[in-house]
Amino acid sequence: xxxxxxxxxxxxxxxxxxxxxxxxxxxxxxxxxxxxxxxxxxxxxxxxxxxxxxxxxxxxxxxxxxxxxxxxxxxxxxxxxxxxxxxxxxxxxxxxxxxxxxxxxxxxxxxxxxxxxxxxxxxxxxxxxxxxxxxxxxxxxxxxxxxxxxxxxxxxxxxxxxxxxxxxxxxxxxxxxxxxxxxxxxxxxxxxxxxxxxxxxxxxxxxxxxxxxxxxxxxxxxxxxxxxxxxxxxxxxxxxxxxxxxxxxxxxxxxxxxxxxxxxxxxxxxxxxxxxxxxxxxxxxxxxxxxxxxxxxxxxxxxxxxxxxxxxxxxxxxxxxxxxxxxxxxxxxxxxxxxxxxxxxxxxxxxxxxxxxxxxxxxxxxxxxxxxxxxxxxxxxx
Length: 382
What we know:
The chain is of the alpha+beta class. A hairpin with a 7-residue loop joins β17 (313-322) and β18. It is elongated and about 115 Å long. The protein has helices at 9-61, 304-307, and strands spanning 75-78, 82-87, 90-91, 101-102, 120-121, 128-129, 145-153, 163-169, 175-182, 190-195, 201-203, 211-212, 233-243, 253-261, 284-287, 296-300, 313-322, 330-335, 341-345, 353-362, 371-372, 376-377. The chain is built from two helices and 22 strands. Strands 1, 2, 7, 8, 9, 10, 11, 12, 13 and 14 form a ten-stranded antiparallel beta sheet that branches. Strands 17, 18, 20, 21 and 22 form a five-stranded antiparallel beta sheet that branches.
Protein backbone atom coordinates (compact mmCIF):
# COMPACT_ATOMS: atom_id res chain seq x y z
CA UNK A 1 0.00 0.00 0.00
CA UNK A 2 1.42 3.39 -1.10
CA UNK A 3 1.71 5.95 1.68
CA UNK A 4 0.43 9.52 0.91
CA UNK A 5 2.79 12.19 2.17
CA UNK A 6 1.19 15.24 3.95
CA UNK A 7 2.48 18.75 4.73
CA UNK A 8 5.26 19.12 7.16
CA UNK A 9 5.18 21.53 10.09
CA UNK A 10 7.68 23.77 8.33
CA UNK A 11 5.52 23.92 5.17
CA UNK A 12 2.44 24.78 7.21
CA UNK A 13 4.28 27.53 9.03
CA UNK A 14 5.54 29.00 5.74
CA UNK A 15 1.99 28.92 4.30
CA UNK A 16 0.59 30.64 7.40
CA UNK A 17 3.26 33.35 7.23
CA UNK A 18 2.55 33.97 3.53
CA UNK A 19 -1.20 34.07 4.21
CA UNK A 20 -0.67 36.56 7.06
CA UNK A 21 1.37 38.80 4.78
CA UNK A 22 -1.32 38.71 2.08
CA UNK A 23 -4.14 39.34 4.57
CA UNK A 24 -2.25 42.22 6.19
CA UNK A 25 -1.79 43.83 2.80
CA UNK A 26 -5.46 43.31 1.94
CA UNK A 27 -6.63 44.81 5.24
CA UNK A 28 -4.39 47.85 4.75
CA UNK A 29 -5.69 48.27 1.20
CA UNK A 30 -9.35 48.11 2.19
CA UNK A 31 -8.73 50.37 5.19
CA UNK A 32 -7.08 52.93 2.90
CA UNK A 33 -10.03 52.71 0.50
CA UNK A 34 -12.50 53.13 3.37
CA UNK A 35 -10.56 56.13 4.71
CA UNK A 36 -10.45 57.70 1.26
CA UNK A 37 -14.21 57.26 0.82
CA UNK A 38 -14.87 58.68 4.31
CA UNK A 39 -12.65 61.69 3.60
CA UNK A 40 -14.41 62.30 0.30
CA UNK A 41 -17.81 62.14 2.02
CA UNK A 42 -16.60 64.51 4.75
CA UNK A 43 -15.35 67.01 2.17
CA UNK A 44 -18.63 66.76 0.27
CA UNK A 45 -20.64 67.26 3.48
CA UNK A 46 -18.70 70.38 4.35
CA UNK A 47 -18.98 71.86 0.86
CA UNK A 48 -22.67 70.95 0.51
CA UNK A 49 -23.45 72.60 3.84
CA UNK A 50 -21.57 75.73 2.79
CA UNK A 51 -23.10 75.92 -0.67
CA UNK A 52 -26.66 75.45 0.57
CA UNK A 53 -26.36 78.29 3.08
CA UNK A 54 -24.75 80.65 0.59
CA UNK A 55 -27.16 79.82 -2.24
CA UNK A 56 -30.10 80.74 0.01
CA UNK A 57 -28.44 84.01 0.98
CA UNK A 58 -27.48 84.87 -2.59
CA UNK A 59 -30.91 84.12 -4.06
CA UNK A 60 -32.94 86.09 -1.53
CA UNK A 61 -30.67 89.00 -0.67
CA UNK A 62 -30.19 89.63 -4.39
CA UNK A 63 -34.00 89.94 -4.68
CA UNK A 64 -34.26 92.49 -1.85
CA UNK A 65 -36.66 95.29 -2.71
CA UNK A 66 -38.75 93.29 -5.19
CA UNK A 67 -42.44 94.09 -4.77
CA UNK A 68 -41.98 96.84 -2.18
CA UNK A 69 -44.33 99.79 -2.34
CA UNK A 70 -43.18 103.36 -2.86
CA UNK A 71 -42.48 104.32 0.76
CA UNK A 72 -41.20 100.92 1.93
CA UNK A 73 -37.40 100.58 2.37
CA UNK A 74 -35.38 97.79 0.80
CA UNK A 75 -32.85 97.30 3.61
CA UNK A 76 -34.07 97.66 7.19
CA UNK A 77 -31.24 96.64 9.50
CA UNK A 78 -27.67 95.53 8.70
CA UNK A 79 -24.84 94.46 10.98
CA UNK A 80 -21.90 92.07 11.00
CA UNK A 81 -24.25 89.13 11.58
CA UNK A 82 -27.76 90.32 10.60
CA UNK A 83 -29.38 91.18 7.26
CA UNK A 84 -33.01 92.37 7.46
CA UNK A 85 -34.79 93.37 4.26
CA UNK A 86 -38.17 93.77 2.59
CA UNK A 87 -38.95 91.61 -0.44
CA UNK A 88 -42.01 89.98 -1.99
CA UNK A 89 -40.50 86.51 -2.07
CA UNK A 90 -43.61 84.36 -1.86
CA UNK A 91 -47.21 84.66 -2.98
CA UNK A 92 -50.02 82.21 -2.37
CA UNK A 93 -51.87 83.73 -5.32
CA UNK A 94 -50.98 82.49 -8.82
CA UNK A 95 -49.85 85.01 -11.41
CA UNK A 96 -48.77 87.54 -8.79
CA UNK A 97 -47.25 90.51 -10.66
CA UNK A 98 -44.60 91.17 -7.99
CA UNK A 99 -43.71 87.92 -6.15
CA UNK A 100 -40.47 86.04 -6.84
CA UNK A 101 -42.05 82.64 -6.08
CA UNK A 102 -45.53 81.12 -6.07
CA UNK A 103 -46.26 78.76 -3.18
CA UNK A 104 -49.92 77.95 -2.49
CA UNK A 105 -48.90 76.16 0.74
CA UNK A 106 -47.02 79.12 2.24
CA UNK A 107 -47.95 80.32 5.70
CA UNK A 108 -50.65 83.02 5.31
CA UNK A 109 -48.62 85.26 7.63
CA UNK A 110 -45.48 85.03 5.49
CA UNK A 111 -46.58 86.35 2.11
CA UNK A 112 -47.26 90.03 2.74
CA UNK A 113 -46.10 92.99 4.80
CA UNK A 114 -47.03 93.49 8.42
CA UNK A 115 -49.06 96.26 9.98
CA UNK A 116 -47.37 98.42 12.61
CA UNK A 117 -49.47 96.75 15.31
CA UNK A 118 -47.77 93.44 14.36
CA UNK A 119 -44.21 94.74 14.74
CA UNK A 120 -41.60 92.31 16.05
CA UNK A 121 -38.04 92.53 17.31
CA UNK A 122 -35.42 91.53 14.77
CA UNK A 123 -33.55 88.49 16.18
CA UNK A 124 -30.36 89.13 18.19
CA UNK A 125 -31.12 92.89 18.23
CA UNK A 126 -33.29 95.36 20.15
CA UNK A 127 -34.66 96.87 16.93
CA UNK A 128 -38.45 96.58 16.39
CA UNK A 129 -40.04 96.62 12.93
CA UNK A 130 -42.16 97.68 11.06
CA UNK A 131 -42.42 101.33 12.09
CA UNK A 132 -45.27 102.00 9.64
CA UNK A 133 -48.04 100.13 7.83
CA UNK A 134 -47.06 100.09 4.17
CA UNK A 135 -49.89 99.93 1.64
CA UNK A 136 -50.33 99.99 -2.12
CA UNK A 137 -51.99 102.89 -3.89
CA UNK A 138 -55.20 100.85 -3.72
CA UNK A 139 -55.04 100.64 0.07
CA UNK A 140 -54.01 96.99 0.35
CA UNK A 141 -51.10 95.82 2.49
CA UNK A 142 -47.75 95.78 0.75
CA UNK A 143 -47.04 92.34 -0.76
CA UNK A 144 -43.41 92.56 0.40
CA UNK A 145 -42.70 90.66 3.61
CA UNK A 146 -39.78 91.23 5.98
CA UNK A 147 -37.02 88.62 5.74
CA UNK A 148 -34.21 88.36 8.28
CA UNK A 149 -31.05 86.28 7.90
CA UNK A 150 -28.82 86.08 10.96
CA UNK A 151 -25.94 84.09 12.46
CA UNK A 152 -26.06 82.92 16.05
CA UNK A 153 -24.04 80.53 18.21
CA UNK A 154 -25.17 76.90 18.07
CA UNK A 155 -25.58 75.95 21.72
CA UNK A 156 -26.28 72.30 20.82
CA UNK A 157 -22.55 71.67 20.23
CA UNK A 158 -19.55 71.88 22.53
CA UNK A 159 -17.58 74.21 20.29
CA UNK A 160 -17.42 77.86 21.27
CA UNK A 161 -17.06 79.00 17.63
CA UNK A 162 -19.82 76.90 16.07
CA UNK A 163 -22.55 79.04 14.46
CA UNK A 164 -25.73 78.41 12.55
CA UNK A 165 -27.50 80.51 9.92
CA UNK A 166 -31.21 81.12 10.50
CA UNK A 167 -34.00 82.76 8.52
CA UNK A 168 -37.09 84.49 9.89
CA UNK A 169 -40.02 85.83 7.86
CA UNK A 170 -42.08 88.58 9.50
CA UNK A 171 -42.64 87.64 13.13
CA UNK A 172 -42.80 83.88 12.55
CA UNK A 173 -40.54 81.24 14.09
CA UNK A 174 -37.01 81.15 12.68
CA UNK A 175 -35.87 78.22 10.52
CA UNK A 176 -32.33 76.82 10.46
CA UNK A 177 -30.72 77.22 7.04
CA UNK A 178 -27.26 75.79 7.78
CA UNK A 179 -25.22 74.53 10.73
CA UNK A 180 -21.53 73.94 11.47
CA UNK A 181 -20.47 77.39 10.32
CA UNK A 182 -17.33 79.06 11.62
CA UNK A 183 -16.26 82.71 11.51
CA UNK A 184 -13.65 83.59 8.91
CA UNK A 185 -10.53 84.67 10.86
CA UNK A 186 -10.52 88.42 11.31
CA UNK A 187 -13.67 88.94 9.22
CA UNK A 188 -17.38 89.46 9.98
CA UNK A 189 -20.02 87.17 8.53
CA UNK A 190 -21.51 90.13 6.63
CA UNK A 191 -19.24 92.85 5.25
CA UNK A 192 -21.43 95.59 3.77
CA UNK A 193 -20.28 97.57 0.75
CA UNK A 194 -21.33 101.01 -0.47
CA UNK A 195 -20.20 103.14 -3.38
CA UNK A 196 -17.81 106.05 -3.01
CA UNK A 197 -17.78 109.27 -5.06
CA UNK A 198 -16.00 107.46 -7.90
CA UNK A 199 -18.54 104.64 -7.94
CA UNK A 200 -16.20 102.07 -6.37
CA UNK A 201 -17.39 99.65 -3.70
CA UNK A 202 -15.99 100.36 -0.24
CA UNK A 203 -16.49 98.34 2.93
CA UNK A 204 -18.53 99.94 5.71
CA UNK A 205 -16.43 100.36 8.83
CA UNK A 206 -17.33 98.03 11.68
CA UNK A 207 -17.73 101.04 13.97
CA UNK A 208 -20.53 102.36 11.72
CA UNK A 209 -22.64 99.25 12.20
CA UNK A 210 -25.41 98.52 12.78
CA UNK A 211 -27.22 100.71 10.27
CA UNK A 212 -30.99 100.98 10.26
CA UNK A 213 -33.74 102.66 8.32
CA UNK A 214 -34.98 104.86 11.14
CA UNK A 215 -37.44 107.02 9.19
CA UNK A 216 -40.82 105.38 8.73
CA UNK A 217 -41.50 106.59 5.20
CA UNK A 218 -38.74 105.77 2.76
CA UNK A 219 -38.02 108.69 0.43
CA UNK A 220 -39.86 111.29 2.52
CA UNK A 221 -38.38 114.75 3.20
CA UNK A 222 -37.18 113.54 6.60
CA UNK A 223 -35.52 110.46 5.08
CA UNK A 224 -32.12 112.02 4.49
CA UNK A 225 -28.57 111.57 5.72
CA UNK A 226 -27.82 110.40 8.36
CA UNK A 227 -31.10 108.50 8.54
CA UNK A 228 -30.88 106.95 5.08
CA UNK A 229 -27.19 106.03 4.84
CA UNK A 230 -28.35 102.42 4.64
CA UNK A 231 -29.74 103.26 1.18
CA UNK A 232 -26.19 103.68 -0.14
CA UNK A 233 -25.47 99.96 0.38
CA UNK A 234 -24.98 98.20 -2.95
CA UNK A 235 -23.62 94.77 -2.00
CA UNK A 236 -22.66 92.49 0.86
CA UNK A 237 -19.60 90.26 1.07
CA UNK A 238 -20.13 87.01 2.99
CA UNK A 239 -17.18 85.37 4.76
CA UNK A 240 -17.65 81.80 5.95
CA UNK A 241 -15.96 78.60 7.00
CA UNK A 242 -18.02 75.43 7.08
CA UNK A 243 -17.23 72.10 8.69
CA UNK A 244 -18.66 68.63 8.26
CA UNK A 245 -19.63 68.49 11.93
CA UNK A 246 -16.88 65.98 12.82
CA UNK A 247 -14.01 66.39 15.27
CA UNK A 248 -10.35 65.47 15.35
CA UNK A 249 -8.83 63.98 12.20
CA UNK A 250 -12.31 63.55 10.68
CA UNK A 251 -13.00 67.28 10.72
CA UNK A 252 -12.96 68.96 7.32
CA UNK A 253 -13.30 72.72 6.83
CA UNK A 254 -14.03 74.65 3.69
CA UNK A 255 -13.84 78.42 3.20
CA UNK A 256 -15.89 80.48 0.80
CA UNK A 257 -16.06 84.20 0.23
CA UNK A 258 -18.69 85.65 -2.09
CA UNK A 259 -20.07 89.09 -2.90
CA UNK A 260 -23.83 89.47 -3.36
CA UNK A 261 -25.04 92.44 -5.33
CA UNK A 262 -28.25 94.17 -4.18
CA UNK A 263 -29.47 95.86 -7.37
CA UNK A 264 -32.66 97.31 -5.84
CA UNK A 265 -30.97 98.85 -2.78
CA UNK A 266 -31.19 102.62 -2.65
CA UNK A 267 -33.43 102.90 -5.68
CA UNK A 268 -36.27 105.37 -5.57
CA UNK A 269 -39.55 103.67 -6.37
CA UNK A 270 -40.08 105.49 -9.62
CA UNK A 271 -43.54 105.63 -11.12
CA UNK A 272 -42.24 104.64 -14.53
CA UNK A 273 -45.77 104.31 -15.91
CA UNK A 274 -46.83 107.68 -14.52
CA UNK A 275 -49.42 108.05 -11.78
CA UNK A 276 -51.41 105.19 -10.32
CA UNK A 277 -53.89 104.03 -12.98
CA UNK A 278 -57.44 105.37 -13.00
CA UNK A 279 -59.95 102.55 -12.99
CA UNK A 280 -63.26 104.43 -12.88
CA UNK A 281 -65.50 101.52 -13.91
CA UNK A 282 -68.46 99.80 -12.30
CA UNK A 283 -67.84 96.27 -11.04
CA UNK A 284 -70.82 93.93 -11.31
CA UNK A 285 -71.14 90.53 -9.68
CA UNK A 286 -74.04 88.12 -10.05
CA UNK A 287 -74.87 84.55 -9.14
CA UNK A 288 -74.80 82.52 -12.37
CA UNK A 289 -74.52 78.97 -11.13
CA UNK A 290 -76.93 76.67 -9.34
CA UNK A 291 -77.45 75.59 -5.76
CA UNK A 292 -75.67 72.34 -6.59
CA UNK A 293 -72.81 74.02 -8.49
CA UNK A 294 -72.54 77.62 -7.18
CA UNK A 295 -70.76 80.20 -9.31
CA UNK A 296 -70.42 83.98 -9.33
CA UNK A 297 -69.60 85.94 -12.49
CA UNK A 298 -67.77 89.26 -12.10
CA UNK A 299 -67.76 91.73 -15.02
CA UNK A 300 -66.28 95.15 -15.69
CA UNK A 301 -65.19 97.35 -18.58
CA UNK A 302 -61.60 98.37 -19.41
CA UNK A 303 -60.15 100.99 -17.07
CA UNK A 304 -60.06 104.60 -18.14
CA UNK A 305 -56.24 104.41 -18.30
CA UNK A 306 -56.32 101.28 -20.47
CA UNK A 307 -58.12 102.70 -23.48
CA UNK A 308 -57.23 106.36 -22.90
CA UNK A 309 -55.24 108.56 -20.54
CA UNK A 310 -51.80 107.08 -19.88
CA UNK A 311 -52.76 103.73 -21.49
CA UNK A 312 -50.54 101.87 -19.04
CA UNK A 313 -52.87 99.26 -17.49
CA UNK A 314 -51.34 95.81 -17.72
CA UNK A 315 -53.37 93.68 -15.31
CA UNK A 316 -56.49 93.63 -13.17
CA UNK A 317 -56.48 92.30 -9.62
CA UNK A 318 -59.65 90.66 -8.31
CA UNK A 319 -60.51 90.52 -4.61
CA UNK A 320 -63.27 88.73 -2.72
CA UNK A 321 -64.55 89.07 0.82
CA UNK A 322 -67.48 87.89 2.87
CA UNK A 323 -70.19 90.51 3.18
CA UNK A 324 -69.19 91.31 6.77
CA UNK A 325 -65.44 91.02 6.18
CA UNK A 326 -62.71 93.11 4.57
CA UNK A 327 -60.58 92.72 1.45
CA UNK A 328 -57.24 91.06 2.20
CA UNK A 329 -55.34 88.77 -0.21
CA UNK A 330 -56.02 89.01 -3.93
CA UNK A 331 -58.15 86.23 -5.33
CA UNK A 332 -56.72 86.32 -8.86
CA UNK A 333 -55.07 88.62 -11.41
CA UNK A 334 -55.67 88.58 -15.15
CA UNK A 335 -53.89 90.38 -18.02
CA UNK A 336 -55.36 93.47 -19.68
CA UNK A 337 -55.95 94.04 -23.36
CA UNK A 338 -59.53 92.76 -23.65
CA UNK A 339 -62.63 94.57 -24.90
CA UNK A 340 -64.51 93.57 -21.75
CA UNK A 341 -63.74 91.46 -18.71
CA UNK A 342 -65.46 88.48 -17.15
CA UNK A 343 -64.24 86.38 -14.25
CA UNK A 344 -66.04 83.24 -13.02
CA UNK A 345 -65.55 82.38 -9.36
CA UNK A 346 -66.43 78.74 -8.64
CA UNK A 347 -64.88 78.75 -5.17
CA UNK A 348 -67.90 80.23 -3.38
CA UNK A 349 -69.80 78.47 -0.60
CA UNK A 350 -73.50 77.81 -0.31
CA UNK A 351 -75.53 79.95 2.07
CA UNK A 352 -72.92 82.76 2.01
CA UNK A 353 -72.76 86.38 0.85
CA UNK A 354 -69.83 87.90 -1.00
CA UNK A 355 -68.59 91.26 -2.24
CA UNK A 356 -66.02 91.53 -5.04
CA UNK A 357 -63.45 94.22 -5.73
CA UNK A 358 -61.37 94.94 -8.84
CA UNK A 359 -58.38 97.25 -9.28
CA UNK A 360 -56.15 98.09 -12.24
CA UNK A 361 -52.37 97.57 -12.15
CA UNK A 362 -49.81 99.34 -14.32
CA UNK A 363 -46.24 98.34 -15.17
CA UNK A 364 -44.60 99.98 -12.14
CA UNK A 365 -46.65 98.23 -10.64
CA UNK A 366 -48.97 100.79 -9.07
CA UNK A 367 -52.53 99.88 -8.20
CA UNK A 368 -55.66 101.92 -8.75
CA UNK A 369 -58.42 102.56 -6.24
CA UNK A 370 -60.38 99.40 -5.52
CA UNK A 371 -63.95 99.40 -6.91
CA UNK A 372 -66.45 97.12 -5.21
CA UNK A 373 -69.50 95.23 -6.44
CA UNK A 374 -72.81 94.85 -4.67
CA UNK A 375 -73.51 91.92 -2.40
CA UNK A 376 -74.04 88.52 -4.01
CA UNK A 377 -76.05 85.90 -2.09
CA UNK A 378 -75.32 82.22 -2.64
CA UNK A 379 -78.38 79.95 -2.06
CA UNK A 380 -78.36 77.00 0.29
CA UNK A 381 -77.32 73.61 -0.97
CA UNK A 382 -80.17 71.46 -2.33
